[in-house]
């Protein structure tokens, strides 16, 4: 029998970016908050001398233990789903700060088109542009409504950048200047300008200079060591929840953090959440934490899974298209699109930062004419210099022997003579892509695993063909002697890393018939339950999701305060 604990104003499930923002904002306004994190405590000191590529990048030190909990995957409903036994396509964060600790720091704002994608697509091209089975929908909020919250998140994180000439209008400049411009970045920028494109610095959560944010949190500048993705930052230069928002919540004296606390059910009665049930993973003891307001801020899969296991909301049924929990799962299409090899030019690509690069959005969103194209949306195209660590980076041109003396000679020759131009493509939801509970496989507690049903579509294949060619053109303009452009897309498989940008499952919108939460991320049918994260995205854009997650979290925090003062639906 679970031990019932004293009631709190708010309980948060998962303490990463979403949970940290909610905790800091609510405690600053006087609410008592309990944060439940199933992983361990973290602090900057944990990352001192952390430059161990084998331990962190290849043996996944900072990630979820798949032997205790994983996901199952199938390409379609006719195939039996099997568990992901080892890491491949994406990486599931674990511990305080979640995936916000091991991320690269690339912090984009989704485009105005994204938030009104269905309306804008029909307005420009007609209903026939949306293929059968594609279930895009507007988000129930506009870019202009969300812009102040983007601005707030960027100030908290100290985002470094310059104006995106094809992005949404900004109310203020980025709080810190853009990162350094490397020779490779300049080549990319000059070449794009020569092709009449509009390059700009990748917006970066790796600080370009020392910065103190509005909450008084001071952090040092990036050292360009090249150990961002899959690593914590030993300098605190990379914005993560542990060095930005969580300390603010702790300093109020109103925040109680409990690590090693795995939430297994959302408790509810009479249409309202009453608290959560969790297990202390160090002792196996169960606890009930009552609360006036429950806020789910865990990763996409866990947000969806907890709702389904707790019987909250109507599960999505792909056969009828009804229900909302598990609907509109989307991933990301194509991270790498082209590589160029140089015979006589070298680059110091071992140096870098997680978000050091140049981008163009000429082929993102609806910034270009899709009338004669067999896809909608697009991709952000970029040259990134994230730091070519030695084990994972040994590109060689096609035709190189795969072993032996000649292979070794080629890896040495091209170690600093190759550059990548990537296209991070959007991913549209389809009726037959969804999340549900696996009927066979269980976690260490005997609870069902999350099951993914997903594959790439013709929309994605056409996008890759188009974007791969554009990346190849840029590399040629940059003067590469050999160019390899990726213009083909095989069926989705879960064994090769692409990105951890999973979205959907608890999507937002303007109607409970088609969405699970409103534009404050408040559940339509459980008014004191808020679900925050990329699980709210009705589709995935051509960008990294964190900037938009942060903006939505700040708006949700505002909504929770309104609800606390006057309960009821916020829209």
Automatic annotation (TrEMBL):
Region of interest called Disordered, as start-end residue ranges on this chain: 161-180
InterPro entries: FAD/NAD-bd_sf, GMC_OxRdtase_N, GMC_OxRtase_C
Keyword Flavoprotein: yes
Molecular function per GO: flavin adenine dinucleotide binding; oxidoreductase activity, acting on CH-OH group of donors
Key words, A-Z: FAD, Flavoprotein, Oxidoreductase
Location of the Glucose-methanol-choline oxidoreductase C-terminal domain: 437-553
Start and end residues of each Glucose-methanol-choline oxidoreductase N-terminal domain: 221-329
Gene3D superfamilies for this protein: FAD/NAD(P)-binding domain
Keyword Cell membrane: no
A Pfam entry, by short name: GMC_oxred_C
Ranges that cross the membrane: none
PANTHER family xrefs: LONG-CHAIN-ALCOHOL OXIDASE
Entry similarity comment: Belongs to the GMC oxidoreductase family.
The name this protein goes by in its record: GMC family oxidoreductase
């Amino acid at each position: 029998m679970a031990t019932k604990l004293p009631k709190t104003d708010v309980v948060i499930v998962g303490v990463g970016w979403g949970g940290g923002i909610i905790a800091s904002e609510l405690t600053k306004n006087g609410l008592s908050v309990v944060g439940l994190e199933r992983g361990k405590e973290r602090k900057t000191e944990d990352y001192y001398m952390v430059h161990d590529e084998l331990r962190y990048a290849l043996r996944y030190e900072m990630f979820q233990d798949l032997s205790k909990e994983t996901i199952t995957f199938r390409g379609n409903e006719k195939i039996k789903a099997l568990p992901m036994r080892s890491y491949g396509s994406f990486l599931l964060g674990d511990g305080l700060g979640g995936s916000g600790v091991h991320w690269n720091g690339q912090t984009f704002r989704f485009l105005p088109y994204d938030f009104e994608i269905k309306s804008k697509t029909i307005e420009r091209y007609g209903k026939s542009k949306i293929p059968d089975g594609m279930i895009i929908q507007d988000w129930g909020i506009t870019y202009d409504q969300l812009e102040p919250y983007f601005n707030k998140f960027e100030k908290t994180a100290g985002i470094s950048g310059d104006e995106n000439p094809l992005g949404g209008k900004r109310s203020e400049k980025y709080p810190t200047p853009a990162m350094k411009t490397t020779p490779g970045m300049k080549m990319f920028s000059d070449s794009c300008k020569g092709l009449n494109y509009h390059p700009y610095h990748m917006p970066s959560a790796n600080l370009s200079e020392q910065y103190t944010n509005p909450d008084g949190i001071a952090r040092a500048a990036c050292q360009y060591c090249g150990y961002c993705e899959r690593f914590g930052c030993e300098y605190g230069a990379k914005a993560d929840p542990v060095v930005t928002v969580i300390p603010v919540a702790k300093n109020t004296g109103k925040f109680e953090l409990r690590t090693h606390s795995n939430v297994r059910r959302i408790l509810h009665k009479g249409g309202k959440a009453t608290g959560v049930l969790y297990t202390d993973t160090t002792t196996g003891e169960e606890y009930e934490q009552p609360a006036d307001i429950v806020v789910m801020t865990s990763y996409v899969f866990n947000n969806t899974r907890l709702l389904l296991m707790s019987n909250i909301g109507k599960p999505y049924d792909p056969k009828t298209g009804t229900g909302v929990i598990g609907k509109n799962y989307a991933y990301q299409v194509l991270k790498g699109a082209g590589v160029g090899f140089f015979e006589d030019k070298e680059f110091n690509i071992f140096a870098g930062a997680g978000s050091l690069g140049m981008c163009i959005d000429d082929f993102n969103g609806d910034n270009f004419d899709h009338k004669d194209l067999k896809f909608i949306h697009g991709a952000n195209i970029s040259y990134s210099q994230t730091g070519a660590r030695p084990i994972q980076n040994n590109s060689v041109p096609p035709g190189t022997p795969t072993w032996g003396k000649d292979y070794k000679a080629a890896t040495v020759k091209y170690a600093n003579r190759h550059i990548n131009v990537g296209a991070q493509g959007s991913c549209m939801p389809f009726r037959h892509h969804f999340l549900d509970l696996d009927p066979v496989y269980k976690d260490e507690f005997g609870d069902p695993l999350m099951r993914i049903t997903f594959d790439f579509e013709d929309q994605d294949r056409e996008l890759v063909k188009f974007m791969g060619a554009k990346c190849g053109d840029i590399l040629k303009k940059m003067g590469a002697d050999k160019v390899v452009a990726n213009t083909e897309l095989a069926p989705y498989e879960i064994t090769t890393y692409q990105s951890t940008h999973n979205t959907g499952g608890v999507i937002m919108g303007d109607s409970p018939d088609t969405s699970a939460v409103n534009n404050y991320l408040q559940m339509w049918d459980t008014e004191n339950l808020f679900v925050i994260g990329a699980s709210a995205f009705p589709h995935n854009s051509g960008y990294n999701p964190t900037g938009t997650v942060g903006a939505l979290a700040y708006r949700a925090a505002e909504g929770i305060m309104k609800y606390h003062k006057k309960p009821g639906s916020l829209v």
